[in-house]
Amino acid sequence: MLEGARKEVDDLHAFFASWYQGSIPKTAETFARAEQSLCEDFHMIGPEGIPLNRDEILGYIRDGHGGRKGQKYRIWIEAFQAEPLTDKLLLATYEEWVEADNEIRGRASSAILRADANAPEGWVWLHLHETWLPKNRARLTK
Mean pLDDT score of the chain, rounded to an integer? Predict the structure, then answer.
């Protein structure tokens, strides 16, 4: 159960990196990876404290296709932990690290995921809350 949740977090962020780099095509079929991972009433609180709903997030992601093309850009996950809440819900916490424009920034993230056999990795995202990590915690790993 927990391994599948880790795979979902890793794979969705790998999708984001590829999407923003433009290394995968901007098609409905490709973008379905993001749409199928976020439940219909998904919401998040971004690192600036601004709440966003599923449509807003998907619009932002869709519009970002290729925005990092030709740049050094990568995303990776560290310090992943998952705690089952019920037999179908879990709380995942992790650090999301992004290297862009020769700068590395991190976010502490907490997500609630629900088991769903129709989702790409068997999990859908219900809620995500992100907080910027201090810049002096920047990682140079991976």
Answer: 94
